Amino acid sequence: MSEKKTYKQLTLDNRKMIERYLDEGKTYARIAYDLDVSPSTIMREVRRNRRCEWISRSKGADKTDCEHFKSCKVQTICDFERGFYENTCQRKLCKRCSMITCSDICPDYEKRICWNVLRAPLVCNACEHFARCTLERYRYSAGSAQVSAERRNAESRRGFDLTTEHVEYLVKTVRQGLRLGQSVHHIFEANDLPCSERTFYRLVEDQSIGVIGIELAKKAKYKKRKHKKDSVAHKRGFYRNHEYSDYLDLSLTERAITTEIDTVWGCKKDSKCILSLHRIDLHFQLYLLLEARTAAETVAALDWLESCCDGRFSEFFGLMLADRGSEFDDIEGIERSVTDGEKRCRLYFTDPSRPDQKGSCEKNHVELRKIIPKGTPLANMNAFVLAEICSHVNSTIRLGCGNTTPMQLAQMCLPASLMDNLGLSLISPNEVVSAPGILYSPTK
Asked: Which of 25, 131, 240, 336 is the one with CA 20 to 30 A from 77?
């Protein structure tokens, strides 16, 4: 049983091979054999993408394109056709005359035909008379062919595949139905129209046909859809050795001191955001202010945090788990120590659309949202206010902490110098604030 034939477009490398073989005078059959395609494919490719070079303008080019030019011995043709030249004629061959173009007045003129451009190979790549040829010359160039093919592919996907008659019939039928109060769906189901209902709405939206949105009963109520910007696509293997499956391969002892990291937004128009680091074993959450949600800002914030750790960053935050946001794309920068360039931590990523894989961090964002609700602008936020908010969040008594606070657990495991450098302190239980508008107000 033969394998199913797959059809693919020619690539730039294929076209470079075609150009080289044509320069060498190879046949279409030989080119097709080496490319594993049909000879007709090569012929269509050359015919569609060959480039006209017009006639040669070099000094050595033939003067005319007459079929008899090389063997022509005609003289003094102007004596009986244009007698006013007879006083200046030097009785030489008319094809060499500089006063007239012999092909314009010669009764025996016959236009020369080049069979190389009318049949295979259709181009003059291997022709030795190319430089002085007075006929229309054609060449095949891989670069030019690639540009032509890409432009043709792009143009074929523009507009819509409807003739003028189809458009007129579509508009007439739809308007007749609308005058009777019929819905667009009813019109399309009751008539054999040349496009689908969805295509019709798209043509109306793009103003490609003579029906405007206001003529449709419900169309005026809906806004045009806004397409989300495509996220940056990573190359295959970008997360290799940093995936969640790799994280699960670690021992339970190592995973017990994981720091889950994420970013928290204020409102959509904000450039600032909050980088949160959550030590799952201590229920301790640390907040760092980022001027922008970028990978460079994330690395800079972690570099500053490392400077606060007195060389013990790996001990406190040596294993990190993040989502696949673009702010964590600089894996090398996050893992690299700012002091000696060595590896300061190991970074792993959750699977796409799986926030539950770092659920502790997501759950503890609730405490932050009590003070900074969703939609609160962060334009007036600064590091001192954020440190105070962090102190209050971590001073809340938690059942999961054994009715103690994350701050107390952190003070037992983290040095006092780190807490001082971060500006964090334990808040008295009766002074803990977990309400919006007290610690931070977006208007001040």
From this structure: 131
In a domain, 287, yes or no: yes
How many domains are there within the chain?
3
Domain that includes residue 405, residue range: 244-431
CB 17 within 8 A of CB 35: yes
Burial (0-12, 13-18, 19+ Cβ within 10 Å), 165:
exposed
Q: Domain with 310 in it: what CATH number?
A: 3.30.420.10
Phi then psi for residue 222, to 5 deg, are -100, 140
Condensed to tens digits (0 to 9), the pLDDT of residues 54-81 reads: 776 665 556 676 777 777 877 777 764 4
CA distances 114 to 47, 111, 131, Å, are 15, 10, 14
Q: Which of 111, 140, 156 is the last residue of a domain?
A: 156
Contact 262/322 with Cβ under 8 angstroms?
yes
Of residues 318, 319, 321, the one with CA closest to residue 354: 321
Q: Per-residue DSSP letters for 369-432?
A: HHHS-TT---TT--HHHHHHHHHHHTTS-BTTTTSB-HHHHHHHHS-HHHHHHHT--PPPGGG-
Percentage of the chain exceeding pLDDT 70: 86
Closest-CA residue to 422 (of 396, 383, 395, 393): 383
Q: Are residues 384 and 326 in the same domain?
A: yes
